[in-house]
Automatic annotation (TrEMBL):
Belongs to the SOS response-associated peptidase family. Keywords: Covalent protein-DNA linkage, DNA damage, DNA-binding, Hydrolase, Lyase, Protease. It is an enzyme of class 3 (hydrolase). Pfam families: SRAP. Its EC number is 3.4.-.-. The keyword DNA-binding applies. InterPro entries: SRAP, SRAP-like. This is Abasic site processing protein.
Amino acid sequence: MCGRFSFYQAPETVAELFKLAGIPQIKPRYNIAPTQSVPTVLHREETQERQFQMMRWGLIPSWAKDAKMGAKLINARSETVAEKPSFRSPFRRRRCWILADGFYEWETTDSGKQPFYFQLKDGEPFAFAGLWERWQSPEGEVIESCTILTTEANELMSRIHVRMPVILPPTSRDRWLDPATQGEDLHPLLTPYDSETMISYPVSRMMNTPKTDSPDCVQPIAALE
């Protein structure tokens, strides 16, 4: 699964790398947790344009009775996403990128769970494969929320966990957003990312607390000692 990640890129860098029409209004985040706002890019059917959007992490199905359901749907298994009631409609019509530059996973040790940070070797930001949905409360409040797709772990990740988030290679990003991409054309995009292009290292357990959000969260333990 993917339960925490970071995104601390400069807004100008984000606009250039992800080909956005304008510079997004974002601030550095080093320890993003479920139900918080996350940076996404989607294709708006109304305008037929790519749009940057902050969304709540944890997909709230349009038919949900209340927003609490979203806390349980921060991830969606790519193997079953086309069939699950919560995800099958977004999988067809509401796909997005969820922007990140690293993510965390925990290894179980004798002294407790040790967090590890995973990122690309070149330090470049990347896009998780995501789905989004629009939900309206009985009182009229509208919430746009999202979930991160997961797949089986690559070699690097499998040392810590059996699953990993789906990272879209730059060559696949446009296909994921394109509404014309459907059915069997989507599944080849949902594969483990190449281990050879990634690194991981242990980080401080300070990041276990969601309220802790500082550059120290992504630093190797050795750098903090």
